[in-house]
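Regression test attached.
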Amino acid sequence: MARITNLSGRVVFDSRGDKTIEVEVSIDGVKGRAAAPAGKSRGKREVEPYPAGGPEEAVRVLSSVVAPKLVGHEYSSFIELDKTLQEIDGTPSFSKIGGNTALATSVAALSAYAALTGEPIYRIISRETRQEPGLPLPLGNVLGGGKHAGQGAPEIQEYLVIPLNPRTIHEAVEANIRVHRALGEILSKRVGGFPLGKGDEGGYAPPISVEAALEAVKMAADTVEDAMGIRLGMGLDVAAGSIYDESSRRYVLKSQGLYLDREGFLNYLAGLAERVNLVYIEDPFIEDDPDTFAKLRKKLPNTLICGDDLVVTRRELIEDCLRRGAINAAIIKPNQVGSLYLTWQAVEACLQGGAVPVASHRSGETTDTYLSHIAVGMGCKVMKAGVLGGERVAKANELLRIGEEVGASRVRRIA
Ligand code: PGA
Ligand code: ZN
């Protein structure tokens, strides 16, 4: 008998210093705990993270609406609990209890159940999803711009690296850290007066142009490739919604003096991809333009064209974009849908459609490590969780621990 015996919440702070909700659930007296992250460059179709009134109101709703329904409830699976949470909320966008409230409750319950049964979370997930546990390739942000950084940083949001053929998860995690370190040395020599400040996700945020940023990251990655004898790929999260000017319908990169319409921006990105060999481009265009995604996919058949704001972890949007040939990868952010069950639905749509699911953090994070368990247990080939900063390293370190159980060399591949 596994029964929810207690449920409570509190307001805590995330890595940006913003308030978020943390939930504690006890099952048969054994406690589990989880907090929710927060995005800053959010897709329009994400669920509401909180009821009107924010995290404080969410904690009140948790105790007045959710707890009375769930205390005494028999816990059988995250899928069953998530369906119950959706029923309790009763709105399509989780606006009554908040997607963050629902997600934190679901993960806290799963953690309690894991503690009660003595099984790790990823294994419980993998049994329900019928995926063989395996480790994701870490995709790491080493340089940040756009909404995650201050004025003067490059407009494109994330400059990423990914080890392509690591022998072990240790090697994979270490490679990204070494690129970050090498990049710091390059920037301190090249960018006068830059005190190595960082953006929200722990990547450096130097006052340089988009192309100078890309070149510096490439140089750092090349050094680490040679030193470690592994292949590293590079990627970008354009987060196109944050560089798009609605009134002129142009993508604006002031640091490059560029004001481009969608065709012009398409050609620009394709040129960059060829020049530095980008293996991954996320949200290259605004979220209501899947047709231009599809054109880029055609131009760059060997690059992962990944949807984030475009598909917001929703099965039906991923399926639609796959039918249109707009993407071959999708970002999986559990709090975009507020539910582990709906998260799995999105991952399953990727796997069934031959696309790469990329489990992802948010720019405002906590030190929780459940994202790593989701990636391992749901079959995500890639996990994007930053490189440095305690809240990012926590997730990488959890992969090292899981590696001790599933085998450190069982790292998934994208190519
Ligand atoms: P967010 O951005 O967490 O600030 O929404 C991350 C991303 O765009 O991938
Ligand atoms: Zn993104």
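Expected vs. actual: identical. The longest strand covers residues 4-13.
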